Amino acid sequence: MELLQKVLDLPVIVQGALGSALFWLVLELGQWVARQASSTRAKLGKQDQTATQIALASVLEKSPEARRFAFQGMVHGALHYTVKALIFLAMGLSIQPIVPVVGTVGILAALIFLFRALAYVPNFDRWPNEAEMQKTYIKLKGKSEV
Fold it and tell me: Distance (Å, rounded) from C-alpha 21 to C-alpha 18?
């Protein structure tokens, strides 16, 4: 709040210049984020395939050790993104009193990471039966071995 009050005490022309600089910074940052997101889109598809393969293995593998290992992989993948979400949430909420927009950004980033975590614990209702699950698992297993 002190920083905001100091900015409001400045002459109007300086406030305008600071606002323009902030707008330029947000614009450049937004464009950079968009470029990064478009370049990693293919990687995210691969991560989703890996998550689905691990989840299906936890259900379909015959060996109890393999099923346990796959289940641990699911939990590890989900926890990895959940911890990232909690870090963004904590940082955003702790900085929010100083810069209110950071809290919103932290919450949005946390939601993105929670949705990534959800990919590691899929809803098995999307496969009508075990044969369809097996078919998808074999298809994904073949892709990962190539």
Answer: 5
Cα-Cα-Cα-Cα torsion 43, 46, 48, 54, nearest 10 degrees, comes to -140
Q: Which residue has the higher pLDDT, 15 or 145?
A: 15
Structural domain range at position 43: 2-145
Distance CA 100, CA 141 (A): 46
* pLDDT over 80 (residue 141): no
What is the overall mean pLDDT for the chain?
77
Concatenating the DSSP letter of every residue in 19-54 gives HHHHHHHHHHHHHHHHHHHHHHHHHHHHHHHHHHHH
Q: What is the pTM assigned to this prediction? A: 0.55
For the chain, report the end-to-end CA distance as a whole number of angstroms: 56
Report the distance separating Cα 130 and Cα 118, nearest Å: 21
Number of domains the chain contains: 1
